[in-house]
């Protein structure tokens, strides 16, 4: 009975998170959301903010389906893959939030206005949804089925985006400089050579986020 009550809370929490993601992403892609790092349609998929929130929304929805099947007695428990996707999605939006707060806000805020990155749908994508995701993971997700090796798998989507971003930068080099608009996060503001430091640091940071979330939820009952 106690287990079912906990599963029901996890079920409701994941529904709320999936709906928040659907709302925020739809708002952004509709073109009705204004401000910096905004856009419309499929063009916004170049932003890790959008990709990570879509990823978490899908992971949350899959957890909703699995939790429903468990509650109905059709499965004994949620699959390890569902938990792995949830850890990975939560880590991805946490990276989004932390990079926004500690890097983009100080560097872009002075040009576009402080808190501009938290206006319109970006309030949800950059701040509220990641905070809710962290709370749901730590309060409602059971993490006993994951091991330390899963943290390496969980960071892979962030790694793939880093590779994509770097390739986009490399494809738009002109006279030794990055063309305007193709280093949209300003990671290589000091020049392309800074990639030697920036990329390893970013990937280490992303992995540490995964590891910390893994440890926070380890052996915790929902």
Structure, explained:
The protein has about 220 residues and is mostly helical. About 65% of the residues lie in helices and about 0% in strands. The chain has seven helices and two strands. A two-stranded antiparallel sheet has the order 1-2. The radius of gyration is 18 Å and the shape is globular. The model has no long low-confidence stretch (mean pLDDT about 90).
Provide keyphrases for this structure.
single chain; 222 residues; mainly alpha; two-stranded antiparallel sheet; 7 helices; 2 strands; 67% helix; 2% strand; globular
Low-confidence parts: none
Mean pLDDT: 90
In helices, the fraction of residues equals 55-70%
Strand order of the largest sheet: 1-2
Terminal Cα separation, in Å?
A: 13 Å
3D shape: globular
- Tell me the structural class: mainly alpha
Strand-residue proportion = under 5%
Q: Major sheet: size, sense and barrel closure?
A: 2 strands, antiparallel
Provide a count of the helices: 7
What's the count of strands?
Answer: 2
- What is the C-alpha radius of gyration, as a whole number of Å? 18 Å
- Order of helical and strand elements: HHHHHHEEH
